[in-house]
Amino acid sequence: MAENAIEIEGLHKTYAAARRSPEKVALDGVDLAVPRGSIFGLLGPNGAGKSTLINILAGLVIKSSGTVKIWGFDQDANPRQSRASIGVMPQEPNLDAFFTPRGSLDVQAGLYGVPSHKRRTDELLDLIGLADKAEAYARSLSGGMRRRLLLGKALVHSPQVLVLDEPTAGVDIELRNMLWQNVRKLNDQGMTIILTTHYLEEAEQMCDQIAIINHGSVIANDSTANLLSRLDRKTMVIRPESAAALPAMPEGVSAEARPDGTMHFTYRTSLTPAESVLAAVRAAGISIADVRTEEADLEDVFLSLTRA
Ligand SMILES: Nc1ncnc2c1ncn2[C@@H]1O[C@H](COP(=O)(O)OP(=O)(O)O)[C@@H](O)[C@H]1O
Ligand SMILES: [Mg+2]
User: Fold this and answer.
1) Could you tell which of 20, 23, 24, 30 is best to mutate to test the pocket of ligand 1, judged by most ligand atoms within 8 Å of the CB?
2) Fewest Cβ atoms closer than 10 Å to its Cβ: which of 198, 203, 275, 296?
3) Does the pLDDT at position 304 exceed 90?
């Protein structure tokens, strides 16, 4: 068995020119491997190519060139097995208003050839919190309920890999929490999860590994911890026992006094040991009431990589 849930090599996608718009290169040679069992984040600014990549995985967009393997199955050589291995919750809702949640899940299961006795309709209705709306028409469901139904549809064939494209964009906190609880639960059960999100804090909390994509290329792909440690910068925040002038600092350390009485010392961890910042504070005769450090977050990494 392949150790990666997804393997993508040399993936290109050019959308053909339409009446108004010229042809558009959306993916420009993407190589990507998603480890089995991970929660993998795909981040990038609007128009970077995230949905194109996900829709190619889902079989909704036809790639221009390159190879895509899902759960070890080549999309071209083994289209049925590769399709059966993945479930996708798309960014754009595509629900049929004439079906009820139960009907939608049944139709979707039928499309995937899941026999009646193997269907998990009631279990899925429970998971997405729509058991009491099972017989309501989709057009009468709230936006949040429709989103949840999309998640249910992605799961009818019990795929090994679940892909969520911006699942929490514009949803309320309650739905967001429910989605993340479901994602964690499914991941704990062994499902590999790929998601895109605009909320960097969310990616930081949820994802084991993150790929950053910009202008159709992967510009970083690493564990969340490694990505964060890439930014060689830390801020030490010191609260003196009593008001004091900013002390002289070693070269390369920037010092700032804040109105709340704290001093902020920002330095490159590779050049300046924390101890030399503390020593400079003590040398100025300042006694320290409190000290903490602030580290770079994903937003800093993201901005430093996508600023172009
Ligand atoms: N069906 C399409 N036809 C033409 N161009 C498209 C189509 N879908 C997306 N694009 C273009 O491809 C680029 C990548 O889009 P997309 O994959 O949706 O990015 P993201 O999901 O990262 O915002 C954008 O420039 C977008 O305008
Ligand atoms: Mg998108």
Assistant:
1) 24
2) 275
3) no
User: pTM of the full predicted structure?
Assistant: 0.82
- Taking the CB of residue 265, how many other CB atoms lie within 10 A of it? 25
Q: Where are the domains of the chain?
A: 4-85+159-228, 94-146, 231-296
Q: Which CATH superfamily is domain 4-85+159-228 in?
A: P-loop containing nucleotide triphosphate hydrolases (3.40.50.300)
What is the per-residue pLDDT across 44-98, written as a single tens digit (0 to 9) for each?
989 999 999 999 999 999 999 999 999 999 999 999 999 999 999 988 777 777 7
Q: Which atom of ligand 1 is nearest to the CA of 15?
A: 4
Task: Show Cβ contacts of residue 144 under 8 Å, excluding neighbours closer than 6 positions.
Answer: 171, 172, 174, 175
Report the separation in Å between the CA atom of 103 and the middle of ligand 1, taken as the mean of its atom positions: 31
